[in-house]
Amino acid sequence: MQHTGSLAVLALGLVMAGPLLAQTSGEEETIPAPTANDQPADLAEGQTVLPNGMDITADYMENGRWYNADGIPTFKNNDDEVDYAVFSGYRRYHAECHVCHGPDGEGSTYAPALKTSVLNMDYYDFMEIVASGKQDVNASANQVMPAFGTNKNVWCYIDDIYVYLLVRGTDTIARGRPAKRAEKSPEFTAQEDACMSG
Amino acid sequence: MKTLLTGAAVALLLSSAAIHANDSVITETGKPDQWAIQTGDYANTRYSELDQINRDNVGDLRVAWSFSTGVLRGHEGGPLVIGDIMYVHTPFPNKIFALDLANDGKILWRYEPQQNPEVIAVMCCDTVYRGVAYADGMIISHQADTTLVALDAMTGEVKWQVKTGDPAIGETNTATVLPAGDKVIVGVSGGEYGVRGRVTAYNLADGSEAWKAYSTGPDAEMLVDPENTMVLGKPIGADSSLNSWEGDQWKIGGGTTWGWYSYDPELNLVYYGTGNPSTWNPSQRPGDNKWSMTIMARDADTGMAKWFYQMTPHDEWDFDGVNEMILTDQDVDGTPRKLLTHFDRNGLAYTLDRETGELLVAEKYDPAVNWTSGVDMDPNSENYGRPAVVAEYSTEQNGEDTNSTGICPAALGTKDQQPAAFSPKTNLFYVPTNHVCMDYEPFRVAYTAGQPYVGATLAMYPAPESHGGMGNFIAWDNVAGEIKWSLPEQFSVWSGALATAGDVVFYGTLEGYLKAIDAETGEELYRFKTPSGIIGNVMTYVSGGKQYIGVLSGVGGWAGIGLAAGLTNPNDGLGAVGGYAALSDYTELGGQLTVFELPGGGDAAAAEAPAADTAAAPAEGEAPAEGEAPASN
Questions:
Q1: What is the pLDDT of residue B584?
Q2: A67 in B contact zone (CB under 8 Å)
Q3: Which of B86, B417, B528, B611 could anchor a disulfide with B99, C-beta 3.0 to 4.6 Å?
Q4: How confident is the model at residue B21 (pLDDT cuts 50, 70, 90)?
Q5: Taking the domains of chain B in order of start, what are their residue ranges?
Q6: How high is the pLDDT of residue B458?
Q7: Which of residues 90-109 of A touch B (CB under 8 A)?
């Protein structure tokens, strides 16, 4: 049967790069506490640079997905119509991530609000944690995030999940299922099929 | 004294060899002063004969003492009390504390197993654990990593341990275990990881495996007899499971067994339900997916299946069938019947004859339920026992990549694992429920061992056109199939109820309240806000002649995931942002036992019983003789 959702072959290349680049990240505050303290960044009208320094301005589209000038996945919505990758990310997030991180990237009683994490965390750090997992186990915490590097349902859609969280973190769309979405492009479908069956 | 007691207990054990039931569990659960099994009794009624605390004085309830478990995250289940010892468990890392009730709660022993924290990564919905069991002088714990361990109840010393599953392929444990006969029966979690569900019985004496019964697959592996295992009065027939799946999907097809277990010692039957078929995308698993979503009755000694009833053939909504089976003896149309009552995730409450599996009642216990127009109750119909699926809400019929909207209940069900209680005084069931609906969009997923295997996205929101809250606490008549009364709750009620002979029903709320209500009318009589949201189950016991009520606080579980940030309804249309109440506005993580009492010394002269140096609880390997519990009466 046909897959829907989104793409990902490119993500695999980025994954390779991710761990190398992320080695320097050390113990920084990459994962904020899952409470009301981590408010979404309030981007001023027209402001496009996130607290982590990333410019979310879409520069070019490749294989049905938007990137900024540095080649990092981003989004380009048309009013309240989200691009297809954002919709794909919404869907995959709520299949793979929300059982710990709560609906709409909002966090749960124990797992952080990822919609905020992506504003403060480098893209490559994000990728490394998703690929390799993360442990915070001590006297007061028992937090373990699994490694999803071998899970196609995550890896083939990780950039979609990322841009969905960007959209949520910047409050570009409201919570819940995006009301309108762009059509899925043939390039997108081709990449998705290649990734899922590869 | 100790020697004498041991001798008596040995004699008791020897004489019981011919009897099926586990004498120690029957003996200990038969003492109203104790809470000797998570479910209150083998029948899962969660009813206590204690009546010091009653509808007239419960308003005076106050906190007697409290105990921090030192663990955060979701605290399900509750403590046991055997003799003068209380056993408190925690979520991962699955600590156990033995508290000496005769000595101001002094910690007699503690047990903290070493577990690989990687197991946390494959627990789908928080690191909950629904508690330990007691049998034959042992505390039996089934850890998150599927280690089953038997500890000396007096000392905490490990008697034996055995591994029941493999977390590397997503097999974990969250459920309590059921000691029955000379065995202990355990389940497995991991329906969201493509785990193949089964129950396994281990010999209490040494932890060796006695039998194993899968939920799916060949008859021999399911311990099904094609001629003698019955389904709605007819033989199950050969290859009933294999014929209901396409290809080998059953091997990763779920049907896990993470719920509650009940036991009828007279019939020697164990009852439990099986979970969802994997994946959540119904298009990837054509067929009825037997025997997921099924009530199972099995012989406790052999595991052989007596009867099955599949509630939700070919699940399309994640309505796991694992909720508790409550065993009661009641009159139906003037005839005494041995009944089994089950409040399913799918929103239907079932009443069956637990001896034969005959279906007597199947009715909605939340009027919001809309995915089915009802169950075919005509024994002559080819659809006998099947729910009629409403096309609009069928995620199968709407197909992959289509968002089906407005389905009630949501995937967490009209009720999840949070167990109901039954009072023989009122003949009513007291049921903690969810009042949440959903949109559900299935799509294709690939299977990777040890990775989530879900295949659907869903959005949940409070039941539309109702009171706006996400839960109700209801009283249910299981013979008439009717709601007697219903109390709206702001959040899902995720706490197990307790009914008592004092005409009071207790339950906890996600905001953290312990509530006491009148068993007849539902009128609220008392509430107290504990330090964290309650997803534990309320229990009661007597110590020093005085009745206490205990409950674990510690928000989390599936409720803590879905409700922490509140819910929104995507169908409310543009502009309806913000939605509904957020749990994070009311409570925080915690892990605490709170114990309640009435002012004064109770109605017994023994209220200030002299503190014993050693607790007079069951000694190693023996069942305490009747009347040995010092706190009785």
A1: 84
A2: no
A3: B86
A4: low
A5: 2-608
A6: 85
A7: 90-96, 98-100, 102-104, 106-109
**Distance (Å, rounded) from C-alpha B142 to C-alpha B482?**
37
Chain A residues with CB under 8 Å of B565 CB are 102-104, 106-108, 113
Of the candidates B23, B33, B126, B318, the residue annotated as catalytic is: B318
Q: pLDDT tens across B101-128, in order? A: 999 999 999 999 999 988 998 887 789 9
| Residues of B with Cβ-Cβ distance to A103 under 8 angstroms | 459-460, 562, 565, 567
Question: CA–CA distance from B626 to each of A44, B10, B256, B618 (Å)?
Answer: 74, 14, 37, 11
Judged by DSSP in three states, A117 sits in: helix
Q: Which residues of A touch B457 (CB under 8 A)?
A: 90-95
* pLDDT at residue B2 in the model: 40
Catalytic residue status for B318? yes
Summarize pLDDT for B179-192 with one digit per residue, the tens: 999 999 999 999 98
Cβ A91–B118 below 8 Å, yes or no?
Answer: no
> Across the interface, do B121 and A145 touch by the CB < 8 Å criterion?
yes
A1 token code pair: 């049967």
Of the given ranges (A187-191, B81-85, B208-212, B616-620), which has the lowest mean pLDDT?
A: B616-620
Shortest distance between the Cα of B110 and any Cα of chain A, in A, equals 16
Chain A residues whose CB is inside 8 A of the B589 CB are 109-110
For domain B2-608, give the fold.
Answer: Methanol Dehydrogenase; Chain A (2.140.10)
Pair A67, A56: CB distance under 8 Å = no
**Residue B604 to residues A78, A154, B488, B500, Cα–Cα distance (Å):** 74, 62, 38, 19
Q: Where are the beta strands (DSSP E) in B443-560?
A: 456-462, 471-477, 482-489, 498-500, 504-508, 513-518, 524-529, 539-543, 546-553
Q: What is the mean pLDDT of residues B130-152?
A: 98
Of all residues in chain B, the one with the smallest CA distance to A134 is: B121
Give the ipTM: 0.75
Pick left, alpha or beta for residue B447 (phi over 0 → left; psi -120 to 50 → alpha; otherwise beta): beta
When CB atoms are compared, the residue of B74, B118, B443 closest to A91 is: B443
Exposed e or buried b per residue across B339-360, where buried means at least 16 C-beta atoms within 10 angstroms of its C-beta:
bbbbbbbbbbbbbbbbbebbbb
At position B236, the amino acid (one-letter code) is: I
pLDDT, position B571: 59
Report, as an integer, the average pLDDT of A49-57. 94
Question: Residue A82 and residue A78: Cα distance in Å, rounded?
Answer: 6
Q: Is A152 on the interface with B (CB under 8 A)?
A: yes
**pLDDT tier at B335 (50, 70, 90 boundaries)?**
very high
Nearest Cα residue in chain A from B564: A108
Kindly state whether A147 is in contact with chain B, defined as any CB-CB distance less than 8 angstroms. yes
The pLDDT assigned to A127 comes to 96
Is B445 close to A95, i.e. CB distance below 8 A? yes
Which residues contact residue A20 at a Cβ distance below 8 angstroms, ignoring those fewer than 6 apart? none
Would you kindly state where each structural domain of chain A is located, as residue ranges? 9-197
pTM of the predicted protein model: 0.87
Residue A39: what pLDDT? 52
Per the CB < 8 Å rule, is A3 touching B451?
no
**Is pLDDT above 80 for B544?**
yes
Q: What's the CA gap between B470 and B408, in Å, rounded?
A: 12
